[in-house]
Design brief:
Elements lengths: L1 H20 L2 H12 L10 E8 L2 E12 L4 E2 L12 H14 L13
Antiparallel strand pairs: 1-2, 2-3
C-alpha cells in the first residue's frame, strides 16, 4: 500500500511540473515514460492516471489489469476500493493550502 501511495504522489507532482513546461503531445509522452516502469503485461495489478488543470482533464488513461487472472484490463471507470486512503491526500492538500496562506485553520467553514 505504501508503494501505491508513493507512486501516486510521484505521478501527481511529476504531472504538475511537466504540464507547466511541456506541450500537450510531449506531456503525454512524459507521463507514459513515468508509468511505463509499472505497466508491464506480466505484472498483476493496475492503476489509472488522471491529470486535471484548470478544471479540465488534460490526461486520462488506465494501465494494467483489474483482473489479472482473466486478463480484464483496468479502465478509466474502474472502481478503486481504497477505503480511507483519500484522507491522507486531503490532509496533505490542506497542509499545502495553509502553508501557502490560502487557508487558515481559524476560518469559518462557510467561507469555503
Amino acid at each position: 500500500m505504501k508503494k501505491l501511495i508513493v507512486f501516486t504522489l510521484i505521478i501527481i507532482f511529476s504531472a504538475g511540473i511537466l504540464k507547466s513546461v511541456c506541450s500537450q503531445e510531449n506531456f503525454n509522452k512524459q507521463i507514459e515514460k513515468i508509468v511505463s516502469a509499472c505497466d508491464k503485461p506480466d505484472i498483476p495489478g493496475g492503476f489509472a492516471v488522471t491529470v486535471i488543470k484548470d478544471n479540465t482533464i488534460v490526461f486520462k488513461k488506465a494501465y494494467g489489469y483489474a483482473d489479472y487472472e482473466n486478463k480484464i484490463p483496468f479502465s478509466t471507470s474502474t472502481v478503486f476500493d481504497y477505503a480511507s486512503v483519500a484522507k491522507q491526500f486531503t490532509g496533505f492538500a490542506i497542509a499545502q493550502l495553509i502553508r501557502d496562506g490560502k487557508l487558515h485553520l481559524d476560518d469559518d467553514i462557510r467561507i469555503y
